[in-house]
Amino acid sequence: AQKITQTQPGMFVQEKEAVTLDCTYDTSDPSYGLFWYKQPSSGEMIFLIYQGSYDQQNATEGRYSLNFQKARKSANLVISASQLGDSAMYFCAMREGSYSNSGYALNFGKGTSLLVTP
Amino acid sequence: DGGITQSPKYLFRKEGQNVTLSCEQNLNHDAMYWYRQDPGQGLRLIYYSQIVNDFQKGDIAEGYSVSREKKESFPLTVTSAQKNPTAFYLCASSTLGLAGRSSYNEQFFGPGTRLTVL
To answer: Is A118 at the interface with chain B, CB within 8 A?
Structure first.
């Protein structure tokens, strides 16, 4: 079963506007971590932000914030004041706390392609 | 600077050949991972290793093999048994620890190897 779902294959946003990228997850483990990565056309994976399941506050890192709604199992990424350089693929990923048959590897969603227009 | 290196950046393979992708890290991380990425898809786990001389299969291990003789190195061999090896391959590493807390275990990624079968 898919553990991470990103329902938006592609998104457009105008420069300087805010955009929300959706992510829902599925786990029965009370201990888990949620990650967002950015992948530009070069292919490198750039870590953006992390939210732990026990963290009381939503994570923020500069222009990135994570809207964490634990009961709804959603972890949406909010990018404020979009820039042209934000155009890239964005991946949501989860690491469960309990050792599973994937060790502590990340489960990735299929990604959202974001295009920032002038 | 600490980080993960992968080589080569581009690799071409003929049908029936085995090829080995290199992954080296100097972050002193215990865990290392290999992921495969196909166009428009998220990352899928091939193999992972939590400790030297030990490794486990991920979700799509068929046609691949790995070794972990040194903490710093986790090479991946794509064998002729892999039916459709053309893809982008990403190596990652992390510490081991409890997910869910703010002391997260970010996975650091290498720049990737793009493998094409001719």
So the answer is: no
